[in-house]
Design a protein that fits this description.
Rossmann fold, 299 residues, 35% helix, 13 strands, ten-stranded mixed beta sheet
Length: 299
């Protein structure tokens, strides 16, 4: 009986050994590729951190970068958001200059600095969107005025930064700034004008005279000469605003108002023909007009 039991156990063992193997389902080719790319990307990110920490030699990192590029992690698309005046080709070339386009090789901070150096760009952010896309978001400078100096005219923003524009006609409604340094100095004048909104709305241009004071032009053609110093200019503008509100000075045939002489307003009509300023005696008040064409009004 014991012999029979032994044979029975050996038979059971042999039968157990003949049990079919359990196999995992095979992955399809796309799934294999997706798994491999995901694993390689994760490994690449880990290795990237290691390189930053100094744990992986540069040559090893280049090998990893090239491997990543071979499986499809290459910057093939540059999505640009917020580019109205900036040329897209300029942004693309700044983000991806000649060289490797491997998603792990691209230095986002260096690319951001190159894009930020473009004339219209005030701020920029760049993000990776795996597997093959970069997203560039721009904040552009706002055109503020047209600056005329000598025989040239250029578009500038409120800080005086020159903006590239081959055609100024679309910006014809902007104020005109005239004079050396006017583009940057206007940032100090406009807050003064903003204290008198009704007058500010009618200002079409300003001339920076001798790098020390402003003449402003209204939409009706008159020029208002402001005194030196922004505190003095703001006070003179406030007095002019009171007179304009009370009696009306604009649209009445005047050509120029001069408020550089303390509490006096010097007025010239459009029909008057002043002598050349070069012939004006030095004793004449700072209006730049000869006495015969000066009408003084107490303020």
């Amino acid at each position: 009986m014991s012999r029979a039991r032994g044979q029975t156990r050996r038979g059971a063992v042999r039968r157990a050994k003949r049990q079919p193997d359990v196999r995992l389902p095979a992955l399809s080719r796309p799934k294999k590729r997706a798994w491999f790319v995901g694993a390689l990307a994760a490994g690449g990110i880990a290795l990237g951190a290691a390189v930053i920490l100094g744990d992986v030699p540069g040559m090893a990192w280049r090998g990893i970068s090239q491997s990543v590029a071979r499986v499809g992690l290459v910057a093939e698309q540059v999505e640009i958001v917020g580019a109205t005046h900036t040329r897209r080709i300029d942004v693309h070339q700044a983000v991806l200059p000649a060289g490797s386009n491997s998603m792990l090789d691209i230095d986002l901070e260096a690319a951001r600095k190159r894009v930020a150096a473009l004339p219209w760009v005030a701020d920029v952010s760049i993000q990776r969107a795996l597997p093959n896309r970069l997203i560039v978001t721009l904040q552009e400078r706002a055109p503020f005025a047209i600056w005329r100096t000598g025989n040239s005219a250029v578009l500038v923003d409120a800080k005086g930064t020159v903006l590239t524009a081959t055609d100024l006609i679309p910006f014809a409604g902007l104020p005109i700034l005239v004079g050396a340094g006017a583009a940057t100095e206007a940032a100090r004048l406009w807050p003064v004008l903003a204290t008198q909104p009704q007058l500010h709305a009618r200002v079409t241009g300003a001339a920076w005279i001798g790098r020390r004071r402003w003449d402003i032009r209204f939409d009706s053609g008159e020029i208002l000469a402001l005194p030196e110093g922004y505190d003095n200019a703001q006070g003179a503008l406030a007095r002019f605003a009171r007179m304009e509100s009370g009696t009306g000075l604009l649209d009445r045939g005047f050509a120029r108002f001069d408020m550089r002489i303390g509490d006096r307003l010097v007025v010239r009509r459009a029909s008057d023909k002043p002598d050349l300023e070069a012939k004006t005696p030095s004793s004449t008040p700072q209006s730049g007009l000869t006495p015969k064409f000066i009408k003084e009004v107490a303020i």
